[in-house]
Amino acid sequence: MGIRIYNDAGTPINLLPDRIKTGTGNARGWYGYKDLTTRVSSGSVETYSGDFTASLEAIGGQTVTAGSVNAQLQAVVSFQ
Question: What residue range is the signal peptide (predicted)?
Answer without folding.
Answer: none
